Amino acid sequence: MKKHYYSYNQYLRKTFGVRVHRLSLDAGFNCPNLDGKLSSQGCAFCNNKAFSRYTESKRKPIKQQIAESIQFARQRYKAKKFIAYFQSFTNTYADIQTLEKKYNQIKGFENIVGISVSTRPDCINKDKLDLLDKFSKDYKVYIEYGLQSVHDKTLEKINRKHNFKAFKDALELTKRYENIHPAAHIILGLPGESKQDMLETASTLAQMPLWGLKIHCLHLVKDTTLAKQYKKGQIQLLSKSQYLDILIDFLKLIPKNLVILRLVSDANPSQLIAPKWLNQKSKVLQELDKKLEKQDIWQGELVG
Ligand code: SF4
């Protein structure tokens, strides 16, 4: 069945011609929304332990993480090439020398073909982009900005501690670098957002200079502000069918050439509180594919 959206796997195949796997790295960065610079509470949905494989005391050196992950992905996924993905916390939140030292750890692994850096839009500047741009001589370079919603009222509610303008500014700066591919992270189902609000996020982002989008359904992990609110009955989560319904309309509104990095997130089962359907990722994606096929809906079909 032909995919009705431009999946990340399709992009990787088209770009590199072989099976490529992203190596998720925890390079020991912090986050200004956790270390007290902006706040010490973090975003209301964030418990970095839930998506990081390495706790503070057990964090392995970056080169060791890379070597072990390559070995694992070769055996498990038959991957041939790799993208080093600086994923945990805020991966541009340090001085240039520290960033360079950490990013340089990927050098010397001959099958690494790309570097991807996940960060906050308020933690980027020209010097940091210049540094990433230097990597584009030898690697494909990607930057992922956590945004979650284009609505400032929502960003405030979830304690992001930056507004939509910060994202627009980051993207304006990034677009000067033709070899840096920018993506945004979006969450559907955030507290207080209607379907209309979420679709406004889609149509707003459709106008922006983005290469990719990572879309998640709001899920709750232990020890987060939203998990506490959920237990008190103060917030509701989307059901699987509500999520798929919104997602389908969302996909119609975003350009065909935007790479969809993810549509259903992974959560560590020992940390996940709800919704439990999240951990049936492949079933959910199959269900989405069937709905798109049956209704003959395609990514970008409403983009003029
Ligand atoms: S910016 Fe990222 S790492 Fe920092 S608190 Fe928010 S989700 Fe967590």
What can you tell me about this protein's structure?
- The chain is α/β, with parallel strands linked by helices and 304 residues long.
- It has a single domain (8-295), classed as TIM Barrel (Alpha-Beta Barrel).
- Helices cover 35% and strands 17% of the residues.
- The chain has ten helices and nine strands.
- Strands 1-2-3-4-5-6-8 form a seven-stranded parallel sheet, sandwiched between helices. Strands 7-9 form a two-stranded antiparallel sheet.
- α2 (62-77) links the parallel β1 and β2.
- α7 packs parallel to α9 (240-252).
- The longest helix is centred in the N-terminal third of the chain and has 16 residues, at 62-77.
- The model has no long low-confidence stretch (mean pLDDT 95).
- The chain binds iron/sulfur cluster (SF4).
- The site of iron/sulfur cluster (SF4) has 11 residues, from loops.
Output the keywords:
17% strand; 304 residues; TIM Barrel; 10 helices; alpha/beta; two-stranded antiparallel sheet; binds iron/sulfur cluster
Draw up the topology in text.
Layout: H1 8-16, E1 20-25, H2 62-77, E2 81-86, H3 96-103, E3 112-119, H4 126-135, E4 140-148, H5 152-157, H6 164-174, E5 180-188, H7 195-205, E6 212-217, E7 220-221, H8 225-231, H9 240-252, E8 259-262, E9 272-274, H10 281-295
Parallel strand pairs: 1-2, 2-3, 3-4, 4-5, 5-6, 6-8
Antiparallel strand pairs: 7-9
This protein binds iron/sulfur cluster.
